[in-house]
UniProtKB/TrEMBL annotation, chain A:
It catalyses: sarcosine + (6S)-5,6,7,8-tetrahydrofolate + O2 = (6R)-5,10-methylene-5,6,7,8-tetrahydrofolate + glycine + H2O2. InterPro entries: 2Fe-2S-bd_N (IPR042204), FAD/NAD-bd_sf (IPR036188), GcvT/YgfZ/DmdA (IPR028896), GcvT/YgfZ_C (IPR029043), GcvT_C (IPR013977), GCVT_N (IPR006222), Sarcosine_oxidase_asu (IPR006277), SoxA_A3 (IPR041117). This is Sarcosine oxidase subunit alpha. Residues 481-564 form the SoxA A3 domain. Its cofactor is NAD(+). Residues 579-851 form the GCVT N-terminal domain. Binds 1 NAD(+) per subunit. It comes from Actinopolyspora alba. Residues 870-956 form the Aminomethyltransferase C-terminal domain. It is found in: Cytoplasm. One of its GO terms (cellular component) is cytoplasm. It comes from the Bacteria. Its EC number is 1.5.3.24. SUPFAM superfamilies: Aminomethyltransferase beta-barrel domain, FAD/NAD(P)-binding domain, Folate-binding domain.
TrEMBL record, chain B:
This is Sarcosine oxidase subunit delta. InterPro entries: SoxD, SoxD_sf. It comes from the Bacteria. GO terms for biological process: tetrahydrofolate metabolic process. It comes from Actinopolyspora alba.
Length: 968, 89
């Protein structure tokens, strides 16, 4: 590579950097070629080219350039155009350069691809003793000590190599360059089987009881990743101890035209120079409020750049530092601030004015030309994870930042610059100590090692933050070019506007101005906004204003990562019955009932659902039809106290139910509202088989267990879910007796011998053991044949064969719904919604007057005996072809349609009926049982549909069909 | 994700459990002896302190056993329940 393609790349003899100069990587940004080196980020490669400018700003269209070298970047946001799925809004400062990478810079808004994301995403669930977040000096020190003590350690860091800000500086540890110390530590950690180092990984969230989510990027840095490798992994980590060594982010300074390309964080300039061997500008003014930017100035000078001035807000910076930079060829302007920048697009010069003790501008001014302005408004400890876990922060005036309040709230140990400790020896000492303490508290008694000798690090002295550099001509409320949040184009004037509307809380100002709502979630802008607000409100310190709430994720994360593999077919478990294949072969259309796939209807030829259901209903009412009812919940209730228990659970009595008989039962919550229903059989004196609704099985078992364990532990009863042990079919219709008689030759199925609500055990043709009951959810003669699960297919086969000459018709849930609705049988959860009592349903017959049961006391509560309660009724549209949509409101015909229209009730079930040759519906309506014969209205598509209120039993109200044809 | 200590299975993730609300809200011995207001209290009124709270959990995806713990609702710190003090109610 020639120097002309990378004019800003520094010679290896000046800075080696952490790049591999032997490997050239070609990328494209906004259609232009960018050639970088292995180890570059997209941003460092662009800067090496001399490309500092990116897409213009989001609202104002102002030129913007690369500001940072980390995840706080507000300007250099790109959309990746290659890869599995074009991903929006990635900071170029965090993208590792790879061969063939294509990107476009964004004006603060990306675009969603229409392409399906075909990359793989995985999850890992792990337990560990110690998690250390951040692999700077403090994090490495903590990991080393904890691991040496024998603890299992997970070390998480966002970048490809360990070291953190050590890689941006030039310090020595134990007499050698820090990179050697890092290298030794990385090897030691890699060789320890108890340690897992997750690089390219971001700790997104830190939740209760030391639970962390870590997003690991696995393939984005590869030009050709292995096809089997997932792109990202989401680690769910439960730790005994957590050490946060999350570092600190430098903040910009708020002054006029502070957004011009070429204005860059001083730490970023240093990072580009030392880590990437890139000099972003040859003539650089440094504007600082503290000591750290002096290192930037010295490094710039050492690399051959000119530094026309170091502008320091402080009247008396450290004399030693001032002397150092003077010796290196620069001079320091004290008690001063940059008040303006000039330039067409990129910065070409700055104007500097003096500051008095109050922060007002003084008389003198000075101008310097430059192509880079390295700014340092101070440092923000990265307290995000600490605060997420419940920790509070406080304003520390000495370090001029919000630091963790270490007592209470969070159990994490916070070390290094994350708690405002900025000297290297201090970071190492805290890391070693925290690692030892974390290991000891996890059961591995460990002492911290001595802190090695540290050289080349500069001790900090007290900063003088300046939140708002006054404008030379305008009052602060008109500072429309003092940018607080570059990503949102939000200015000091915007903040004044917020406070002029009366807002005082930083939370309100944030939302009003949108400051800190961008991709970086205020990592760069948040504390500056707090500082400016403190000035506007004349608060004594930013601590009085406080921070906004820190919420996960720490860095943006694709939703696909949270989905992982649980998408498409794996989204939710699918439960099928043993006869599922036969339903598929019969052409069934399925519906989801909970996790079950149930056949909804079986269309023949060109039939739609309407036609198929009419045909299936007619078969059940006039011939014979069969349904797979294996999904019904089944619970065995066993024990000497089972009769007492069921009497308390069900609204009606079960203790006196004879062995060999079955009974419909309804259960309520303590509030008297219907919970579930189903038929229970008494198998023996101490044994019942309860059936529940398909969707309610798990809930009912929980309900039974709750009462047994928490209220009536003295009852000797056991409950076992046996849903999965049985397969069952319902054989329904006048011809069902013939079919069941053929199926069960040993059984006398005549009406006299096999009464309604009885069951018998028998053996079917083919030797299949079965329990057959006479229950009916349609009003027709019907049998339910239960067999052990593994005979399910054989049962279906045998039933269909036995009824072949009678044209036995398979039917689905839709037909089942119509048949039961014609009889006024309710479906819990469709005709009820948790506010409906058995009395509201007109099912007083199922409510025992003698015994007590759960919910009985509630049925006499004043609210449940109100006369205007909604009650179950039948609804017949005057026009027999109009199908009322379920959920339709019922209103009086003669009331004004001006909202609010009093709502009397609503339609709960609505169908076409083959037997009635018309549409019909069930509904809940106020005083319904007293209103039979009344006509009410359903407003529908701008017109009124007239509906007559009727009894909910539409078909065979005398119940003569239940026992089938007289001759059986 | 809380770490909940099941007395039978040990420390497990919250996702394995179902929350059961305030502990020691006993089902009245004879509900029909209670006036509507007292029965309403039993049905609908629960404590909601910021701080120590006796509450129930059930290990639905594990042993299916109910148990009680004391949780600080402000910090989520959890400790085993002290024995029930029926006589004090």
């Amino acid at each position: 590579m020639t120097s002309s393609s990378n004019p800003n790349r520094v010679n290896a003899s000046v800075r080696a950097g952490r790049i591999d100069r032997t490997r050239t990587l070609n990328a494209t940004v906004d259609g232009r070629e960018v050639r970088g080196r292995a180890g570059d980020t997209l941003a460092s490669a662009m800067l090496a080219h001399g490309d500092i400018e990116v897409a213009p700003s989001i609202q104002l269209g102002r030129p913007r350039g690369v500001l940072s070298a980390d995840c706080t970047e507000p300007n250099a946001l790109v959309q990746l155009l290659d890869g599995d799925c074009p991903e929006p809004m990635l900071p170029a400062t965090e993208i590792e350069l790879r061969e063939g990478l294509r990107a476009e810079t964004l004006s603060g808004v990306g675009w969603l691809s229409q392409q399906r994301d075909t990359a793989g995403y995985d999850k890992k669930f792990v337990h560990t003793d110690v998690v250390v977040v951040g692999a700077g000096p403090a994090g490495i020190a903590a990991s080393l000590t904890a691991a040496r003590g024998g603890a299992r350690v997970i070390l998480v860091d966002q970048h490809r190599e360990l070291g953190g800000m050590l890689l941006d500086g030039q310090a020595d540890i134990a007499g050698h360059p820090a990179t050697e110390w890092i290298g030794r530590a990385a090897r030691e950690l890699a060789e320890n089987e108890q340690v897992r180092v997750l690089t390219r990984s971001s700790a997104l969230g830190y939740y209760d009881h030391n639970y962390l989510l870590v997003a690991e990027s696995r393939t984005d840095h590869m030009a050709a990743p292995p096809p089997s490798m997932s792109r990202q992994r989401l680690w769910h980590v439960r730790a005994k101890q957590v050490v946060l060594a999350t570092g600190a982010h430098e903040r910009p300074v708020v002054f006029a035209d502070n957004d011009r390309p070429g204005v860059m964080l001083a730490s970023a300039v240093r990072s580009y120079l030392n880590r990437y061997a890139v000099l972003p500008g040859r003539e650089a003014v440094v504007f600082t409020t503290s000591d750290s930017a002096y290192s930037t100035a010295l490094d710039l000078l050492g690399a051959g750049a000119r530094v026309p001035a170091i502008v320091d807000t402080r009247p008396e910076p450290s004399a030693r530092l001032v002397e150092q930079v003077r010796a290196a060829g620069a001079h320091v302007v004290t008690s001063a601030a940059v008040v303006a920048t000039t330039g067409q697009h990129r910065i070409s010069g700055v104007r500097v004015r003096g500051l008095d003790a109050d922060g007002s501008l003084t008389g003198w001014s000075s101008e310097f030309s430059c192509e880079l302005l390295a700014v340092s408004g101070g440092w923000n400890p990265a307290v995000q994870l600490f605060a997420q876990s419940g920790g509070a922060v406080r304003w520390d005036p000495v370090v001029a930042g919000f630091v963790p309040r270490l007592a209470g709230g969070s159990s994490a140990k916070v070390v290094g610059s994350a708690r405002g400790t900025y000297d290297l020896a201090g970071c190492l000492a805290q890391g070693f100590a925290a690692g030892a303490e974390a290991a000891t508290l996890s059961g591995f008694r460990t002492a911290p090692p001595p802190v090695p000798q540290v050289d080349g690090d500069r001790q900090g002295s007290r900063p003088r933050p300046i939140w708002l550099v006054p404008d030379e001509s305008r009052p602060p409320e008109r500072c429309t070019e003092h940018f607080v949040d570059l990503q949102r184009d939000a200015t000091v004037a915007d903040m004044y506007r917020a406070t002029e509307t009366g807002m005082r809380s930083v939370q309100h100002v944030k939302r009003y101005t949108t400051i800190s709502t961008g991709l970086d979630q205020g990592k760069g802008s948040g504390v500056n906004a707090v500082g400016v607000l403190a000035e506007i409100l004349s608060a004594n310190s930013p601590g009085e204003v406080g921070t906004t709430t820190f919420r996960p994720p720490y860095t943006p994360v694709p939703l696909a990562l949270f989905a992982g593999r649980t998408r498409g077919e794996l989204y939710d478990p699918v439960r099928t019955t043993p006869m599922h294949r036969q339903h598929v072969e019969a052409g069934a259309v399925f519906e989801d009932v909970g996790q079950w796939k149930r056949a909804r209807y079986y269309p023949r030829g060109d039939e739609d659902m309407h036609a198929a259901v009419l045909r299936e209903c007619a078969a059940a009412r006039t011939g014979v039809a069969v349904q797979d009812v294996s999904t019904l919940g089944r619970i065995e209730i066993v024990g000497p106290d089972a009769p007492v228990f069921l009497d308390r659970i069900y609204t009606n009595g079960f203790a006196k139910l004879a062995v060999g008989k079955a009974r419909y039962g309804m259960m309520c919550g303590a509030d008297g509202m219907v919970l579930d229903d189903g038929v229970s059989m008494r198998l023996a004196e101490d044994r019942y088989l309860m059936s529940t609704t398909t969707g309610g099985a798990a809930k009912v078992l929980d309900w039974l267990e709750e009462w047994l364990q928490t209220e009536w532990p003295e009852l000797d009863v056991y409950c076992t879910s046996v849903t999965e042990q049985w397969a069952a079919v319902a054989v329904v219709g006048p011809d069902s007796r013939t079919v069941v008689g053929r199926l069960a030759p040993d059984l006398d199925v005549s009406a006299d011998s096999f009464g309604f609500m009885r069951f018998h055990e028998t053996v079917l043709t083919g030797g299949i053991p079965a329990r057959i009951s006479r229950v009916s959810f349609s009003g027709e003669l019907a049998f339910e044949v239960n067999v052990p699960r593994w005979y399910g297919q054989a049962l279906w086969e045998a039933t269909v064969t036995a009824g072949a000459d009678l044209s036995i018709t398979p039917y689905g849930t839709e037909t089942m719904h119509v048949l039961r609705a014609e009889k006024g049988f309710v479906i819990v959860g469709q005709d009820t919604d948790g506010t409906v009592t058995p009395v509201d349903l007109g099912m007083d017959w199922a409510v025992s007057k003698q015994k007590d049961f759960i919910g009985k006391r509630s049925l006499s509560r004043p609210d449940l005996v109100r006369e205007d309660r909604k009650q179950l009724v039948g609804l017949l549209p005057t026009d027999t072809t109009t199908l009322l949509p379920e959920g339709s409101h019922l209103v009086e015909p003669d009331v004004s349609r001006q909202p609010p229209v009093p709502m009397l009730g609503h339609v709960t079930s609505s169908y076409h009926s083959a037997a009635l040759e018309r549409t019909f519906a069930l509904g809940l309506i106020s005083r319904g049982q007293q209103r039979l014969g009344d006509v009410v209205c359903v407003p529908l598509d701008g017109r009124d549909v007239e509906v007559e209120i009727t009894s909910p039993v539409f078909y065979d109200p005398e119940g003569v069909r239940r026992d089938g044809p007289a001759k059986g | 994700m809380l770490l909940v200590r099941c007395p039978w299975c040990g420390d497990r993730d919250e996702a394995e459990f179902r929350y059961g609300g305030q502990a020691d809200v006993d089902y009245p011995a004879d509900p029909h002896q209670l006036d509507d207001a007292t029965w309403g209290e039993y049905l609908f009124v629960r404590a909601n302190p910021a701080g120590s709270f006796d509450e129930r959990w059930v290990h639905t995806a594990g042993c299916r056993r109910w148990f009680s713990v004391v949780r600080d609702t402000a910090t989520n710190e959890m400790r085993p329940d002290i024995p029930r003090r029926r006589e004090s109610r």
